[in-house]
Amino acid sequence: xxxxxxxxxxxxxxxxxxxxxxxxxxxxxxxxxxxxxxxxxxxxxxxxxxxxxxxxxxxxxxxxxxxxxxxxxxxxxxxxxxxxxxxxxxxxxxxxxxxxxxxxxxxxxxxxxxxxxxxxxxxxxxxxxxxxxxxxxxxxxxxxxxxxxxxxxxxxxxxxxxxxxxxxxxxxxxxxxxxxxxxxxxxxxxxxxxxxxxxxxxxxxxxxxxxxxxxxxxxxxxxxxxxxxxxxxxxxxxxxxxxxxxxxxxxxxxxxxxxxxxxxxxxxxxxxxxxxxxxxxxxxxxxxxxxxxxxxxxxxxxxxxxxxxxxxxxxxxxxxxxxxxxxxxxxxxxxxxxxxxxxxxxxxxx
Length: 350
What we know:
Blueprint: E1 7-9, E2 12-14, E3 21-27, H1 34-47, E4 51-56, H2 59-62, H3 80-87, H4 91-103, E5 107-112, H5 115-124, E6 129-131, H6 139-146, E7 152-154, H7 161-173, E8 178-183, H8 197-206, E9 210-214, H9 220-227, E10 232-238, E11 251-253, H10 254-271, H11 277-283, H12 285-291, E12 294-297, E13 312-315, H13 326-329
Parallel strand pairs: 3-4, 3-10, 4-5, 6-7, 7-8, 8-9, 9-10, 10-11
Antiparallel strand pairs: 1-2, 12-13
Helix pairs in contact: 1-4, 1-10, 9-10
């Protein structure tokens, strides 16, 4: 299968064998605190992420008082609508967050959940659009983000293939760069539902780079996805297991994020440095001789002796006849006298 065509997100290349892109998803983990949102930016930058991602919710443009809570929120907000109001930021505050991210060398991403959010983020400036799982069928938002000409990062956490096909077709109609995320909208996601098999399915079905948007709360799926060829890994992050929020069980700590970032960079270096076993064996010849064995004799034998099986054994170092030669030495004659446990050389036997 041909490698899907790479594309750019800001200064970063996605796909085509480029280094994995690690996205730290803050979502609403800031719980409405602008200061905490800024702290997250510094923390994920220090941990080695390539991008920080938020969610831009404008309650009046997105929700209604009838929207149910996904998980109980401790009584702080009377409704999910009130939660969006309390945890939302103004356009000016989003701009400050974006500028902070850029000064830390991070790509700034935020999923829009309404047309109004798209307008805000367009003015603020994002290098790509992350379409959240619940937005995959929101055609007006799709059409508006498509009009910007920016790449689309498509989550698929609650969708059957038919719905994903329609979303991909909309992106293709605008000839936009596309990455499809395997996602399972279960918080936290157990191993049986991570769905790593879908990476190859999406790559073959849509001919585009693929990624894993992981909700397991561990680093293992991200590393496994990278080993299977994912181009992008996204994980939810928290500053501490003792923090508050609906995504906490599905998040990794910033310390774990650092482990994931280091692991991905290790994997990238391994992927880009294929090993030539013959060359390595030549370079390790001195070590080979230390660890390999040679054929030795088990008794003092005079020149002219006919070697029998009981005369021969294997011992380190590997500086003489190799173990593969042992069976063929039985019945051969010695050209010279040898001492017990002496390593045999080719010139020692007729």
